[in-house]
Write a structure and sequence with these properties.
alpha+beta; Nuclear Transport Factor 2, Chain: A; six-stranded mixed beta sheet; 6 strands
Length: 203
């Protein structure tokens, strides 16, 4: 877990609610979705060495795809350039972004040392909900806020804020813009796939 508290896409979600708010959090569908995800993340962390990088990737992929609106996150990360892309490039970018995201989780959650995720509160922001959580473990606590929106009646993550202010999607947009400007969609697809390959191989 040494990298989970500092990486951009080390997305960890809520497992145990604080006692005073436990019933409210359990009743909230967005928080409930996060808790299910966190159960799976912790299970993988506890079996991390046994699974290895590729095993962690395979275990986390279906859970991440259920919990995150990855097509929406890809679109937000690419920004306004998305509207000018072909359908084929859009589909390839979503696939590469998804693979890279899962690989990032598999790479970062590579051990377990008694870490815990706690849902602290859930705020409503227009059509969205912010599920505030706290990650505690061997290092300093990390505050995480998961922005969630309904997709087909299911609450899914569309962004993650670290220490309550730093948006992972906006950080990616800044990074991806330079690649798109210099090499277009194909360059960004290659970059995301290359990064995913490295993470899956444990590098």
């Amino acid at each position: 877990m040494r990298r989970a508290t500092s990486t951009v896409l080390a997305l960890a979600l809520a497992l145990a609610a604080a006692p005073p708010a436990a019933h409210a959090q359990q009743a909230d569908p967005a928080a409930a979705q996060i808790e299910k995800f966190d159960d799976a993340v912790l299970d993988v962390m506890k079996r991390a060495k046994q699974l290895g990088p590729r095993g962690r990737f395979e275990a986390l992929q279906p859970v991440i795809e259920r919990t995150f609106d990855l097509p929406a996150m890809t679109r937000f990360a690419v920004g306004s350039a998305w509207n000018n892309l072909s359908a084929e490039d859009k589909a390839a970018l979503v696939k590469a972004f998804t693979r890279m995201t899962v690989a990032t989780y598999a790479h970062n959650f590579d051990s377990y040392g008694g870490e815990k995720f706690t849902v602290e509160k859930v705020d409503t922001r227009g059509p969205d909900k912010l599920v505030h959580t706290r990650l505690t473990g061997s290092g300093a606590p990390t505050q995480l806020a998961y922005r969630m929106r309904q997709d087909g009646g299911v609450w899914k993550v569309i962004d993650v804020y670290y220490n309550s202010t730093v948006s992972s999607v906006l950080g990616q947009r800044s990074e991806y813009a330079a690649t798109l400007n210099s090499g277009g969609a194909q360059a960004l697809i290659r970059k995301l796939n290359s990064r995913g390959d490295q993470l899956i191989q444990g590098r």
